[in-house]
Each structure stands twice: as C-alpha cells, then as structure tokens.
Design a protein that fits this description.
Elements (H helix, E strand, L loop, with lengths): L1 E2 L2 E3 L6 E4 L6 E3 L2 E3 L8 E4 L5 E3 L2 E4 L5 E3 L7 E3 L2 E4 L5 E6 L5 E3 L2 E4 L3 E6 L4 E3 L2 E4 L5 E6 L5 E3 L2 E4 L3 E6 L5 E3 L2 E4 L5 E6 L5 E3 L2 E4 L3 E6 L6 E3 L2 E4 L7 E4 L5 E3 L2 E4 L5 E4 L6 E3 L2 E4 L5 E6 L5 E3 L2 E4 L1 E6 L5 E3 L2 E4 L7 E3 L1
Parallel strand pairs: 1-4, 2-5, 3-6, 4-7, 5-8, 6-9, 7-10, 8-11, 9-12, 10-13, 11-14, 12-15, 13-16, 14-17, 15-18, 16-19, 17-20, 18-21, 19-22, 20-23, 21-24, 22-25, 23-26, 24-27, 25-28, 26-29, 27-30, 28-31, 29-32, 30-33, 31-34, 32-35, 33-36, 34-37, 35-38, 36-39, 37-40, 38-41, 39-42
Length: about 325
C-alpha cells in the first residue's frame, strides 16, 4: 500500500506497475510524469491493483496508461489530466475488465479517454476534451465496454467517437458537444452497440450520426437534439437495421431525423420527431428502403418527406404539418 505520497518524475514516469504487480493499492497520492513517451502512471501487465483518491497528470503526454495484460484494475475517485495534443488523459490499450469510477478524465488538447480494449467499465465519471480534432471518448476496435452514469463533454469537437467497435453500451449518461459541424455521438463502422437513457446534444452540429455500415445498433429512451439548419438531431448514412425507440428527436432550426443513402431496414418506434423551422422536415428519407416508423409522432413544416425511397411503412403514427408551406406527408 502506498498512501498520501507524491510520485513525481520531471523526466520520466511517476509510477509503473509491471507484470507480476498485483493487488497493490495507491491512495490519496499524486503521480506525475512529464514527457511524450512517459506517464503519470503506467500499468504494464499489472492485475487487480487499486488506485483511489489520487491525482494523475502528464502535461506533455498521456496521464494514465494500461497496456496488454493489465486486467481487473480499479481507478476510483481520481483525477487524470493531460495537456498534450495527440495524447490522452487515460488510455486503456489491450487491457480488459478494468473499472474506472467516480473520476474526472480531462485533456483540453486531445482525447480524454481512449479505449482500444474490451470488457472495461467507466461509471459515475466526467470525461472531457476541448479540442476540435479530438473526442472526449474515443473507442477504436473496442468491444463489450460500458460507459454509464457519466458526462461526456467536448465543447469544441466530437464528444464520443465509436469507430469499428461493437457491442458497447452507453447508458444513463449525457453526451454533449457544441462544435460547429461536429457530432455529439459518432458511430463509424460500429455495430450492435446500445445507447440507453441518454441525453445527447449538439446545438451546432449533429447530435447522433451513424455512418458507413454502423448497423444493428439500438438507441432507446434517449433525447437527441440539434439546433442548426445545417445538421440534424439524428443522421444515418449507409447504416442499416438500427432501432430507435422511445426517444425524443428534435431540431428547432432544421431536420430532426434524416435517413440517407442506403440506410435500410431501420425502425423508429414509440418516438417523437420534431422540427421547428419552415422548409424543414421532422423526418427526411432519401434513397433508402424498407424503413419502419411505428407508434410515433412527427411534427414539422413537413412531418415526413420521402424521396427516392421504397418500402417505407408508417404504422399507428401521427404526422402533423405545422405550417402553410409543407405537408403532413410528401412522397417524391
């Protein structure tokens, strides 16, 4: 046990737990490194260790890093900060079944949290970036991870990127951006992920974008909002067999939900879609097929506009046009 200590290295790594390091506890301590290839704490194959009530930083690189074989570790009630572009406040790389809880993870110049690993859990935490080219949370080839009861924030860029990552869950969380043209939540070639009971917003860009074979994902009991004419609360392109249910999808200044370019066989059910801008649609379908809208409420200048699309099914739904320049339903 190491407690109430300062582990500082101005030219190296603050603390390193190597292979064979197990069941250790670091508490109420400060760990600082200072370098691009150095770390505040580096766990390299250490298992079942606990870091709690600690401050971990590296202004010039990654603050905390867990590498291959670093499994079943816990970081709780701690702060991890980096100040470097191209680096991370927390990087979990090929390390599984780790838990991060009640912690603050922040990099104003790069990604806050990067997960390139499976079966990890982040809970009750705030994860933040303030970089236009980075994300607060970045999942890449990461599967079966859970982020729950957390705040994911990037005022300048994407809040959460889920790239080539499957079977992950984000629940009971807020995911917010305010970056012009950015996305609060961006799924790219990501399948079978679950988003549940979340608030996802970007007033200056897309709230949620599913792109390029982001298939078989589920969004439920969530709020998705945008507030710009140029982007959407929900945007699907080349994304098929997704389910959106019991959700509120709104854009007072533009399109609420857009399905475009081979976004086929998706279902939106028990949901509300609203647009508040003249000339914009609550639901816009373009070049898609076999989508279903069930038991939902759509309201906009035009409630639903369908062009170049086939096999669309509306069931037990209400479509309401709220202006003189549109229709409840337009087919072209």
């Amino acid at each position: 046990t190491i407690t109430q200590c300062r582990l500082s290295n101005s030219a190296g790594t603050g603390a390193s737990l190597d292979t064979g390091s197990g069941y250790n506890t670091i508490s109420q301590s400060t760990m600082t490194g200072n370098g691009a290839s150095l770390y505040g704490i580096w766990i390299i194959g250490g298992t079942s260790n606990t870091v709690t009530q600690s401050y971990i930083s590296n202004p010039a690189g990654t603050a905390a890093r867990l590498d291959a074989g670093s499994n079943y570790n816990t970081i709780s009630l701690s702060t991890m900060t980096s100040g470097a572009a191209g680096f991370y406040a927390l990087l979990i790389n090929s390390a599984s079944s780790n838990t991060v809880t009640q912690s603050y993870i922040f990099n104003p110049s790069g990604d806050g949290l990067s997960l390139v690993s499976n079966y990890n859990t982040i809970s009750l935490s705030t994860i933040e970036s303030n970089s236009g080219g980075d994300a607060a949370v970045f999942l890449s080839a990461a599967h079966f991870n859970t982020i729950t009861q957390s705040h994911v924030i990037n005022p300048a860029g994407n809040a959460a990127n889920v790239f080539s990552s499957n079977y992950n869950t984000i629940s009971l969380s807020t995911v917010t951006s305010n970056g012009a043209g950015n996305k609060a939540l961006y799924l790219f070639t990501a399948a079978s992920n679950t988003i549940s009971q979340c608030y996802i917003a970007n007033p200056a860009g897309d709230a949620v974008r599913l792109f390029s074979n982001s298939n078989s994902n589920t969004i439920s009991q969530s709020t998705l909002t945008s507030n710009t004419a140029s982007f959407n609360a929900l945007y699907l392109q080349g994304a098929a067999s997704n389910k959106i249910t019991r959700s509120y999808i709104a854009n007072p200044s533009g399109y609420a939900a857009v399905l475009f370019g081979n976004s086929n066989s998706n279902t939106i059910s028990r949901s509300t879609m609203t647009s508040g801008a003249a000339g914009y649609d609550a639901l816009h379908l373009d070049g898609v097929s076999s989508n279903t809208i069930d038991n939902s409420y759509l309201q906009g200048s035009t409630a639903a506009y369908i062009t170049g699309s086939t096999g669309t099914v509306f069931s037990t739904s209400e479509l309401a046009a709220d202006g003189p320049f549109g229709n409840a339903l337009t087919l072209t």
